[in-house]
Amino acid sequence: MERINYTVLTEFILTGVPHPPRLRTFLFVFFLLIYILTQLGNALILITVCADTQLHARPMYIFLGALSVIDMGISTIIVPRLMMNFTPGIKPIPFGGCVAQLYFYHFLGSSQCFLYTTMAYDRYLAICQPLRYPVLMSAKLSILLVAGAWVAGSIHGAIQAILTFRLPYCGPNQVDYFFCDIPAVLKLACADTTVNELVTFVDIGVVVASCFSLILLSYIYIIRAILRIRTADGRRRAFSTCGAHVTIVTVYYVPCAFIYLRPDSHSILDGAAALFPTAITPFLNPLIYTLRNQEVKLALRRMVGSQSTKSEV
């Protein structure tokens, strides 16, 4: 039996996002600003939720704080590496770094998916069963749900990383993408990837489809409950509590479905779509939740006011 000798790869080269060379500096500065504002915005929400006594014990804001941590993590593992592609020279990523990036992206991304579903359930209880809400959704239960989302996300990320990197990689080492993700990395495997592609499609498809279906079901009941509210002001306030969540879910799920539920696609649009869950959505989350949420804005004013009072004293 003939033995095949593989040269094991020790690094990958990420090609990045296709762009005209003259825009290299502009794109570097643009994503640098996106990254800085993402970290500052999410850190501000996290500090506000933790510091304000009226927010940190309420389930909705516990979920919002956890979402900020996830957004900061996703942005950190993707955007700085993306920015390096807009600087001169080839900057390879070590094999272990590629494994870590793929794992943490799918760990945090799936945790975010589960968290969005939990947030939809929280809104369902708050609007459809307001009298029983304090009993059904306590601060302790919300913390357990967040922990469950993180555990499930870590298992999902580990499965995807193990399945992807159990295959031999012997060259070429150029990943036609701006980060180490499953479809792009599998193209470089020196083995049949049919099983991997099928498992990825089924696994991610089940997670995305089940979470999205539960969110959709929650909002069907929410809309029915809102339409039964007699006053226009009551309906407006009920819709406003869900508007931010619906917006973010749409921005998150549509690109993910476009990327992962078309396993045979090699469209250049995949890279553009992937910028939404990796760079744009983490940047938009704090803006949407602070601009549309009166309680967060009031908490920010209270925090700023207390700091001003302390400085005067």
UniProtKB/TrEMBL annotation:
Keywords for the protein's UniProt record, in alphabetical order: Cell membrane, G-protein coupled receptor, Membrane, Olfaction, Receptor, Sensory transduction, Transducer, Transmembrane, Transmembrane helix
Gene name in the database record: Or10g3
Transmembrane segments: 26-49, 61-83, 103-121, 141-163, 204-227, 239-261, 273-291
Family matches, as SUPFAM superfamilies: Family A G protein-coupled receptor-like (SSF81321)
Gene Ontology molecular function, alphabetical: G protein-coupled receptor activity; olfactory receptor activity
Name of the protein in question: Olfactory receptor 1512
Pfam family, one: 7tm_4
Source superkingdom: Eukaryota
Domain G-protein coupled receptors family 1 profile intervals: 41-289
Organism: Mus musculus
